[in-house]
User: Fold Receptor protein from Gluconobacter roseus NBRC 3990.
Amino acid sequence: MTNSPALLLTIVQSILPILVTLGFGYFAAFRKDFDAQQAGVLTRLVMLYALPLELLASILSTPRNEVLAAGPVAALILLAMVGGYGIIFAILRGVLNRRLGEAALIAMTITGPSVPFIGIPVLGQIFGPASSVPISIASLAMNLVQLPITLILMGHDRGTRHRVETEGEARNELRELFGHLMHSCREPVVWVPMMALVLVSAGAFLPQFLKGSLLLLGRTTGGAALFASGVVLFTRQVKFSPLVGVIVTVRNVIIPAIIYTLARLWHLPLPALQESVLTMAIPSASINVILAMRYHVLEREIASVLFFGTLSSIFTMAFFIWLTGA
Assistant:
């Protein structure tokens, strides 16, 4: 038990800044210094510039052998985010008979961790530059798989497309999916980390004098994103409900617990176990609130998931940090 004070300090240093920064955003919205539209501008800054630069600098600063050894981490994260999305969507549609748009949004809320916003300050604090690899993998899974499929299903549910016949509808859906994938690939948050992973695998590295230039803006990622999330939270009156409780529990506890169990069963190295479990222990992404507001689906519930999920993560992530020895 001699390491207990150091462990507690690490947990507080990793998680408390999240709640403090969210609180500043919430307070700024309360004072009417920022509104939801201005929070959207901050989010756009993060997704188009700050986060890609942060990932580029971090990946190119990661030793090549660590990147090449990230296969088990990638497998577990993809299994949780892509496989979990499909399973939860099927349960919500086939068993619980949820509407198409609701099922898609809930599935993404449950299986999509807030890696761009919370992953940077938390995983970066614990793992250093090596955290860029699981963050990039999770970001790619969200932007290349979860987000395009969710957008298509929510748009389909809202009836935005004209349906003529089954065959033509299937072609339209395939065309729309391809269009969303192409759009996602043009986003800097997608192609920049992909390019960086290819470069570092080929032996490239980032000169020290360039790293500071990229990180000057890149280091604003976590703070700006969390501040914007706090502003968004104030614009929606959050309320706890059984649905919110179930989503938060599955997102924050059950999924990382499953990943931990699988990593133990597969006898993965400790660093791979820690990175994959803590990545999937991150609470739900704020992009889900934006989707809920855009399509007017479960707006209050998804905002409440963001609030209560982030608030409870100081305990749930602390538990998984302790459990994995990170």
